[in-house]
Amino acid sequence: MNCPLCSNSDLKLFSKDKRRDYFQCAKCRLVFVPESSILPINEERAEYDKHENHIHDQGYRKFLSRVFNPIKERIQPSAKGLDFGCGPGPALAEMFKEAGFDMSTYDPFYAKNEKVLNGSYDFITSTEVIEHVKNPVQYLNQITKMLKPGGTIGLMTKLVTDQHAFKNWHYKNDQTHIRFYSKKTFKFIANSYKLNLKFIGNDVIILQKPKKRQICSNCQRPQDVCLCSEIVKIDNQSPICVLRHKSEKNHALNTVKLMELCLSQINVFDGESFDNHTGFQKFLSDNSNREILLLYPDETAVESTDLAKTNTNYAFVILDGTWRKTRAILNSTSCLKNLKFVKLPEKIQSKYILRKGPEGGVSSLEATAMLLSGLENEEKYLPLYNCFNKMIQQQIDKMGEEVFMKNYAKRIGEKS
Question: Could you say which architecture CATH assigns to the domain 11-208?
């Protein structure tokens, strides 16, 4: 038997009564009954038919206002909503309609309009539903897919508190209640689906999907942290080729993109092995009249500070990734071992305080700037550093001082 929410097999017997056993998942903390304790569909429907929740029942409306009010506070007047699992008396949908909102309803028993499941919504409500759902993953996938970026989900369900309280909890006595959620379970869900989470009272859960950020077409960063104002094209005399590990390409703080924007002579190739990479082999061929050096701290490597002492024309190969990933590139690309190695001076202090790495490690941008400025005019490459410094500061500002100091304060001292 596996957890129906996270498929984990590490389960324990959480509680037991005359009718059912209740198991808890060690990973997501969901409490659930086994398949053998789930009612057949016809019996489940018969239980729901006994409910007397009428659209205009004021007591029922007061109950639903606990989710109606916080949702209404979070949506625009033009918002379009869906009440998922509305039941035979869609009172909550009616409340939103009365408030001027465009509402749709869906229920697998009472409002099975499959067309509404193809729509997209600014908010979705689902009250006293999730505890009935046999397959919570399918349910969550469905409602999060229909939710627009920036949209809000409002759920209502009673929350598991502890094992002792569960034993005498009336909520578990309803045989159509088969999944029981705690705050830890909803935190797991929010993290899994990348949703913002807020609890209101004892039974209202608000989940919000982050808004999509507009991306700058040039620097490929969100518009609110665009770096184009800092970009200055630099005519680097020594060509650069970056072999970037494929897992680094979409990293938000990867510095190679800034190098591409600033340097006039640069090639960037993504992968893990480059012996048969057409672009890289062409770079080697095109620069055969230069001495091509691989930046890597090998025992045989020459010091970068010695390069300016000769009149040699150079081209550089930079490996981009963690130490483990760059080592993997080196080991899987035999032609790299035919190149002469170059290394930076020891104990260089990186300003890349937001990424953890061994002492003395620097970002690909910093390493490249150090190499090139050592051969040419150091001031020429200041714009490259300016872009880098602004990107780091933007990230610090975004996370806030409290989070930054908690996670990176020690690294300030390490790199100062």
Answer: 3-Layer(aba) Sandwich (3.40)
